[in-house]
Amino acid sequence: MKSKAKVLIFLLCITGIGVFLKGHVSGYLLQFQDRKPCACDTCLVEDEWLLQRANKSAEPFLSAKHNLSEYAFNWWKCLQAERRSYSFYKQTVDKLFQTFPSSPDFIERSPDRSRTCAVVGNSGNLNGSHYGRLIDFHDVIIRMNSGRTKGYEADVGSRTTHHIMYPESAMDLDTTTHLVLFPFKIQDLEWLMKATTTGFSGTSYVPVKSKIKANKDLVMVLNPAFMWYVHDIWLEKKGRYPSTGFMALVLALHICDEVDVFGYGADKDGNWSHYWEKLQNKKLKTGVHPGSHEYGIIQKLAEQKKLKFYTGL
């Protein structure tokens, strides 16, 4: 009888321990499941509307481990009449990563913080906007092409963490800013390697800088497949290819948790002008890019609260 009582007590103890552990483990798992990948109320990485448009194979940046598909290469090579082969492109990329970091450098996702991005376009609607302090408050501040800050700090801010360019729009950078190359042809990759070292001596449709000041450890190169993805999925093949500004915006949606957009669209007079210059040709529109269509998508994203769109003056 005593042995039966001992067995019963032993079984009750085991059951109690099991219930205790189950409660604690379940609580831990629920707590883990409830943790968001970022500290925002709504993380872009979890947004179903954006996930439907995301193509996991289209990595935003090139890396030493990434292989561009021949299909994507053939689309990309038509952008500016590239005549050299797929194998030559791969050889060039191999050389590229002998000079620059083998993988992109950006803020990792964390449940303890929200990565905020300001994408700053070059529209004349920034003049008089007084957005400068708001722009400078962000973690990541993306500017592009000939965008500058000196003399315009009150409206466009003074900080830049990532500056997007291609050879024909290149400018010198300080040592803390990432140079983000948007390549449209193999020569753009060759330019990057030579302009940051011995000097570039080639020609293009406009004069390009032979040498450029930039921190080689902070160089990043957009993946040509990402360009194709933006054109195919986001723009539904409208226009010849996306504008630099629109690709920058989609890039921000991929690498940030909260995205604020400034300096896009026409100015108050309906002109597509730059905030630092007086427009001479008022018939100038958006060229080969579907500017109105891109602008409409940005407005839709703002209406659906995927980003905040500051339209300026």
Automatic annotation (TrEMBL):
Coiled coil: none
Record-level GO BP terms: lipid metabolic process; sialylation
Enzyme Commission number(s): 2.4.3.2, 2.4.3.4
Assembly and oligomerization: Homodimer; disulfide-linked. Homodimer formation occurs in the endoplasmic reticulum.
One Pfam match: Glyco_transf_29
Binding positions for substrate per the UniProt entry: 80, 122, 145, 205, 241, 245, 265, 274, 289
Membrane topology: Single-pass type II membrane protein
Similarity comment text for this entry: Belongs to the glycosyltransferase 29 family.
Protein name: CMP-N-acetylneuraminate-beta-galactosamide-alpha-2,3-sialyltransferase 1
Subcellular localization: Golgi apparatus, Golgi stack membrane; Secreted
The keyword Lipid metabolism is annotated on this UniProt entry: yes
